[in-house]
Predict the structure.
Amino acid sequence: MTKTKNKRRTEWRKRRLSEGFCYNCGTRPHRPNMTTCERCASKSRELKRKYYNQHKKAGLCHQCGQPAVEGKMRCKECTTLANTRGKARLAALRNECLEAYGGKCQWCGEADRRLLTFDHVHNDGAEQRKDLKGPNSFLYWLRRNKYPKSIQILCYNCNCAKQYSGYKGPTPELFTEGLGI
Ligand SMILES: [Zn+2]
Ligand SMILES: [Zn+2]
Ligand SMILES: [Zn+2]
């Protein structure tokens, strides 16, 4: 139900944006060449600063929330990542996460890393995504939470098949049952 609610909200935001309003609040006009209004933008800046300062004060890595290296702003892993650039950094983090989950599809054994994706075993991804900001925060989240069992690696084929079978369960057997074959 929340899913449709969210969808409706997104639709509404998009419409408001196309009518010249802030994508976030939908009530004030957005800034030129930006999607949000000044007030929403400054609010989110404030939040970011608050988060940053809280972590700094607590001696936590401002990127992932793990304990930071003494006197530093980041933990060891994030420091290593920060030293590699852009895409390479992301690839390193993704590799690290894939490694932690066995590096291959848990259903069919596909090990080509280009074809692998992280799957929510119990299909609660939408719930979780609400707490995440940005496309890569998921990978940080995985690491920060010590690679929880609620996630597994599937290849895109198996992931798609899982959807197609109506999310009958985490195992290939249940999936086959779901398909009725
Ligand atoms: Zn706004
Ligand atoms: Zn970190
Ligand atoms: Zn597979």
About this structure: The longest helix spans residues 38-58.
